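User: Hi! I'm working on a homework problem where we have to compare a predicted structure to a textbook description. Could you give me the structure for the chain below?
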Amino acid sequence: MLLAVTVLNLWSPVQQIAHKGLIVMAATALGVFVPDLLWQKVQRRTLVAPGAGSWSRSLTKLIGLVGSVGCIALFYWLFPEYGTAGFYANYWAALKVVLPLWAALSLPYLYWIDRRLARPHDALWQMGRLLTLRWQDLSGPVIGQHLLGWLVKGYYLPLMFTYFCNDLDKLLHYDLKQLNGFKGFYDWAYFTFYFVDVALVSMTYLMSLKLTDTHIRSTEPSAFGWLAALVCYEPFWSLIGGQYIAYDNGRAWGVWFGASPALYAVWGSLILLTIVIYVWSTIAFGGRFSNLTHRGIITNGPYRYSKHPAYLAKNLSWWLISMPFMVNVSVAQSLRCCLLLAMLNGIYYLRAKTEERHLSLDPVYERYARWIDAHGLLRALNRIPGIGALARWRPSFAGYCSPARFAPDASP
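Assistant: Happy to help. Predicted structure tokens:
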């Protein structure tokens, strides 16, 4: 990914930033999936020795795929937020390149995968059967999970790709002469770390494939889980953050330590450390990162120490950056800022707990969670009254939701 950015900075075969973004995403995919396929052999987890295959079944799956994409197209057409000339213009420019390639490769890919699936009558096949009015042996929960998975991709992919293109354009035009001291390095590093994060997740939302074992196993089935996640992203965050959780007092950490280069460097390094942990958490996912979905249980990287290293690091960084407890206003105003930021921390706490509830439908995650509770870096907190109860608490699903109805491999 970084090599592709360097090459584009020196020589670019295309001019439109959306096309440059696709080049960087392709390079990122090579860096992630070539080692996974050749070294880790991840395809063996999903695919078996090739069988006879079925063109009829593959055509049914193609109809299901077209119908799934059609649902997202209807979603885009219905809501003005997704106009082609607005915020998502780069996304639409990228689709003009991606969709023809997708159309040309879909049927051969579906047939190749179909021959290698132990259970070829998957959710995509069921979606195709639904659209062709052959409703025997269909499962409503499986089709519902399939459509929810596509809704996740349809919402997050344009958002992340748009952020990615904006950051890529800034990075390609970044004035490296500003790297003259710690402040210049801090500003560049802070931006670049977040660029790496959004570049990786843009690729992962696009590359949800059984070939690479990055397919969706299941999607968050509850409205509460969706609400806790969506409130943190645009366009919803503009309303919530600006009107209800405006914790920033306007005097960030740099104002306080600007006169002391040593303290500025120490505090800035602490902030960058939290961002490094956050980005490391994203990198640990490889090609499996996604909100609101289960695409494989991650136990490596920082996840060997905590179930939620990304959320912990990000929330700690906000306290270090905004420092609402260090304002030169009244105690009441300072307390107000602290409580508002604590409200935002509470939203991420609910995100973490609804994710735990969803992933606990997979027994692999249950074993992982028990191991972290016994051996994790923060296991001592479990013994502190109050904090331990919050750490152990997990909301329960309603009676209609059970592991049997939301199987780990329900959605392709």
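For your comparison, note the following. Residues 182 and 261 are 8 Å apart (CA to CA). The radius of gyration is 23 Å. Good luck with the assignment!
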